[in-house]
Every structure is written in C-alpha cells, then in structure tokens.
C-alpha cells in the first residue's frame, strides 16, 4: 500500500505550504521568501534547497548551482549532516541534468555517506536513487539493476508512492532499452497508475512518456502522441521545463519512427532550443542526434551527416552515454549500407 505523494525536499515551514504538484514558479517564490526571512543556518539550508530544486526544474542551471551550494554551506555551518546530504543530492541531480555524470556520481556518493551517518532515511534513499539513475543513464545496467529493485522494495515498505514510481519507471526503462517491450509497457503503465492514485502529476507525466515510447516502438504512433499531449499539459501546468523538453524530444522520436521526417526535424529543433536554453547538455546532444538523423532522411549530404555524427559520438563519449553512442554507430552503419558499392553502375 502507499499514501499520497509528498515532496521531502520542501522542508521546515515550506512543507506545509508546498506539495509535490506545486508549480515551480510558486515553489521559487515561496522558497525565496523563506530564504530572505531565514532566522537560522538550518532554515537557510532548507529554503536554499527548495530554491535549488525549483530553479533546476525551471531549467535555470546557474541559479540552481548557486542555491544548492548555499544550502550546503548553511547546513555545514549548522553542523547538520542530513541537510548537507540533501544539498549534495540536489547538486548531484543538477550535475546529471547538465551532463557532467562523473561529478554527479561524486556528489551523490558523498550525499549517501552523509545521509547514512545522519540517519536521514529519505535523504539516503533519494541519494541512492540518484546514483542508480545516473548509472542507468550511462547504460551500466549490471551495476544498478539490483539497486533499482531494492529502492522499489523500500518504497513499497514505507508506502512512498513517489519513490515507487521513480524506481518502477527506471526498471521499465532498462527493460525497454534491452528490447523487452512487453515488460517495459507493463511497468510503465503500472507506474502511471500508481502516480495517478497518489496524485503525483509529475510522476504521471514521466510515466506517460515511457508508455508513449513503447507504444511507438510497437507502431502505435497516434496513441503515443495522444499520451504525450496529456503529459505536456501536466508539464506546462507545473512549469516542468526539463520534462517538457524531453516530452518534445520523444515526440520527435515518434514522428521519426513513423516516417514523418519533416515533423520530426521541426520537433527535434524545438527540443534542442529548449535544452540549450537550460544548459542541459545531455538532452541537447540527444536532440541533435535526432535532428541529424531526420535531416539525413530528408536528403542532407552523407558527408555533412557523417561529420555531425562524429561530433556527437565524441560528445556521448565525453558525457558517458553508452546507449546513445551505440545509436550513432548503428546509424553510421545504416548510411554505409545504403551507399552503392565501389565501381557499381549508376542507377
């Protein structure tokens, strides 16, 4: 069993004022007021954490970086290791969002250690979850699959729907990436159901994106696009800039798979602008890959395409995105196979 979703990153007086479905502009306004009025270092750490999370979700990376560091400094001044762990969790999550995955791992590992020492179970769980997600994004499934399962069991044991949704979505994504589409769809749909029942709009938006992805892989483009449209309404209502950009990138994927290459080109371009605006390098690189593939299908020269693929492969290696690099290699092979053999007669 599980209860309604809640947001443990909103602490102190903010916990009564804000909830998991609060828009991030509202969160930022409330947290900024609390930070200005903070009477103690602990109060400042809590308020700055909420500022960091709001600005991160709104795609304002520099403001988020300054806020999580302020939260950490305040928590350290207070000698509160639990608050220090939360600040480092926020910093690690921002680092992952910005494509600096090695830094994300360092900050989240440090957060895990501090949370364990402090006895803050939620900070410990969220930090472990962050490490698991970082490993999953890098394609290191062997290292993090068991951790995802453990986190799911913890969520069930404590009735924490939001954590269950996160872990289940991560497990579903690994099944999807491994080609087990039926199992992935089952888990994404269960994740969406739990998020709906727990009133976790953000979790529902991300889960619907996963469902849409798998439906598209099965050739059900129209159903997939309808689910993304529903998720987009949630993203806009909550000011979820990052989730909206990933929604648009997925829409581009669906157009591409359906052979609607011009629509894919336009949509990938929109997603790329959104990722660039929030300095999210991982999302930007993935959107650029989609854009490169769509342009190639629309007649862009092979040599221009190969040059951009080389740039993207180097970026994916730098970030540590194994799956994305494999996609580059596969598309390059597809281009090579489409070339006429040397000496072949012209058609």
Automatic annotation (TrEMBL):
Provide the leader sequence positions.
Answer: none
Instruction: Name the domain of life this protein comes from.
Output: Bacteria
Pfam families per UniProt: TPR_12
Instruction: Check the record and name the InterPro entries matching this protein.
Output: TPR-like_helical_dom_sf (IPR011990)
List the protein's name: Tetratricopeptide repeat protein
Taxonomic source organism:
Streptomyces kunmingensis
